[in-house]
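Hi X.,

You mentioned you wanted examples for the new student's onboarding notes, showing what a folding record looks like when two proteins sit in one file. Here is a clean example. The first protein comes first, with its sequence line followed by its structure tokens.
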Amino acid sequence: MDLRFSPEELAFREEVRGFIRDNLPDDIREKLQLGHKTDKSDIVRWQRILNKKGWAAYSWPKQWGGPGWTPIQRMMFLEEIQTFPAPEVNPFNVTMLGPVLIQFGSDEQKNRFLPRAANLDDWWCQGFSEPGAGSDLASLTCRAHPVDGGWRVNGQKVWTSFAQFSQRCILLTRTGEPGSAHRGITAFFVDVDSPGLSPSPIEAQHGRLEFAEVFYDDVFVPDERRLGDVGQGWQVAMDVLPYERSTTFWHRGALLHHRCDELVAAVANGDPDIATSSTTAKAIGEAFQAVMAFRSRSRDTQYRLAAGGQLGAETSIDKILIAGSEQLLMETARDLLPGTIEFDDDPRAALWREDYLYSKAATIYGGTSEIQRNIIAKTLGL
């Protein structure tokens, strides 16, 4: 794997750094520097600044409103966003919805929804998981049955991130017979304000209302909101998830690298006995090594894409590595900053606490580590 960048790529990185420095609003910059989380209005404002530049839809081709960047340029852009830091571009709109809509959507759907997604005029969410169908999506039971002019949807979804803030949802439904598994699944675009659709926020253990349970009670969906063919929903889902496990998680690796640096600084300014202990050096080294293992593996994925390759089972390796490194880093922070995560109310301490609690879900969201290992084993013929 060649990690050397060309002069053109290095010049691009400087351009991105300069744009963030000169255009990130001062109040958002100050909020992030003090360790506060950004809210939806901050993300919308910043993404619209990027969209005016033509950079918000960083993973899209020029034909559909993106900058037409190479995978390496996208990687650099995400790194600089996290390192500065600046608010993340809405990952679902840009990295998952966009590429899948470009592949499976009609021209009318692309022309209508892609510009609004890039500018965050619409905030999208993903209605995949159900109470009895999480990693095993082929067993989902939320059903769409055909009616005059469209479909009626009945059922329940759960862990739908930010459904209560969203305008639209990519929804997987059962349209085949109950035992049809992945062959009987169809994807739709659903307006979250549709009559009969009820999101109920779920407070996560880190205190944020990030997830929602969503009920569908005879929700009407016009047939023009179907994404792909009837019965093609499994293919749509299998295209969404590799993007989630590769490009989307790349920015998470850059964030963890930044958090490693912050941990070193916090330990150095903390208890002298902890700061000078060989045990501390070993713990930080192991956490840093885990983060770099993920970044090296994921960077290779980006180089494969740049060479014209396709996403495959290596994204499952990326997912396992990012989950393990995230949990190890946060557990290391808990051990080396005693009392900070549990009791300190300083904004930066609160950020460590929130990240620590959130990390417990890392081996579950986006497909459990057990499922990822099954995918890898199947690819290897085991």
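Then the second protein repeats the pattern, sequence line and then tokens:
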Amino acid sequence: MRVAIIHYWLLGMRGGEKVVEALCRLFPDADIFTLFYRPEGVSPLIRSHKVTASFLNPARKMYQSLLPLMPMALEQFDLRDYDLVISSESGPAKGVLTKGTARHICYCHTPMRYLWDLYPDYVRDFTRSNLRRLTMIPFAHYLRMWDYAAAARVDEFIANSENTRRRIRKAYRREAGVIHPPVAVDTFFHRPAEDYFLIVSELAAYKRLDYAVRSFTHTGRRLRIVGDGPEFKRLRKMAGSSVEFCGRLPDHQLRNLYARCRALVLPGEEDFGITMVESLASGKPVVAFGRGGALEIVPDRGGILYDRCTEESLGEALRKFDSLETGFAPLSLRTYAERFSEGRFEEQFSALISAPGTGNRRLAAV
């Protein structure tokens, strides 16, 4: 059986690329196809596979501006020789063309946010002029129709969470099974807490770090933020001296920050939320906006969930955390995190592949 792995782009190592790594371990002879490829940005395991990039790759530095051309680029991949095609999707990836006898499984992190549930936010926040907005609207309409049609090319959908499963049904009218993404829980460790809270996130508007930065600035609580992105300058401008921006960090430094923080703060809605699992694996509780993946990940005695994306709601949750902090049991949190391990992902995905492909009726039971 020849296997092809399709991933939207391979420019760095985040949650989606960790899934690709797990698939590479399951299928050591698989070939990888991607729209954009920066070898130095990915792990040695991914680089050890044959990676084919699309004709758009020379322009990868401006990849976000090339969205209208991505469907055509995906359809140019020649997958005639492959029996199993696994697409890893949160940007366009499932739109590849496969032979009639191939089995196409799409592991979906989320339907494309900027075309579906977050489309109004993207129109408002990312198109600063009327001309750009008028240009974006017809492109988005075309891409939404293509994305819906591309979903029909998939034989079986797998969602990374119940939250994403609901979004798949809403966007594509398709059912999906759920297999949580792999987290290297055994590599995290616990240390006594120091006086700071932690955010690990891309600095993007939809992540809603703005009100969290304002809250920690106004209260003087210490906050460390790991990550980078287009919102850095705006967030840095509103931050006070108690808020520290750490940028992107190597894994060993990030694990040390997890180990010594009081708690992880997650101010926006996540499709799944690997950072919450990493915090629990470090024996640290989570203070999170209670929507999306937080409802599946944070156990009853694993943190504080609040119901509104406001400074007041977050401030109230942090005060509640202060009163309950000594009651969180690090060993229990670490044990709970093991249900999201790499081994569990590989076990569940192997079971899916070994069973005959019968579409979404069977996947509902995975």
